[in-house]
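Input/output pair, single chain:
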Amino acid sequence: MNFLRRVFPLAGLVIAVASLSGCNILIPDVAADSPARFVQETSPVFYQPPGVDPRRVRPIPDQPVPQTRELYKTQFHQTYGLPVTNPVHMAMYGQQRDEDFTLPAIPVSRVQPQFLRQEVDYQTTERPGTVVIDTKAHFLYFVEGSGKAMRYGVGLGRDGYSWSGRGVIQWKQKWPRWTPSVEMVSRQPEVRPFGAENGGMNPGLMNPLGARAMYIFKDGQDTLYRVHGTPDWQSIGKATSSGCVRMLNQDVVDLYDRLPAKAEIVVM
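Output:
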């Protein structure tokens, strides 16, 4: 009996070990430490189209780096994709509703930048609120004081038709009627239908005085010269008119709102 008691536990242990030997629980996996196996199990898998031998695929050649670039070849910067036109100018000169009329947008990209409205440094002895017109540079300055002025581009009269001196803007008018002077009618008979005897031309987008007109007086007398708007934006910066000072319609509206009553004007 003592013999059987000793043999049966040993036999049970042998049977248990034999049954667990298939699970490799007691046998370490020494292959897991193999570097070759680690690379095989962790290397990325790339897509290989069927029938394509990756050893025969030619690499794409390096493209040459351009040394120069043609910026602004289109309406966008080729580097950043930003519009060439200043968005502030787009807002200032876009389509505007004014009174009973709608001012069309001005193609600012076709106007020289120096003739677009902008605040500039301007040293002068003239009082704030004064209008100064530089006929040589085709600029109109509205003096703001503290060394600043709002500058506008203007179109002026041809030689022999311009006026210069110091005067007063006696009154100003929104959407004025245009009545050509007797002298203009004699020079240009085609404008006779709009003469004083016929009541002038009605206000409107094609009226030569545009959206606003400011009438220049000197010593209490009408000089017959005006600061006014124009639908002909291409005349800004040029000397093509019959003597008056032309402004872009959007600019003359802006100046009209800034201008005090009986403002002084200097044309030089």
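Confidence is low (pLDDT under 50) at residues 72-79. The first strand starts at residue 96 and ends at 98.
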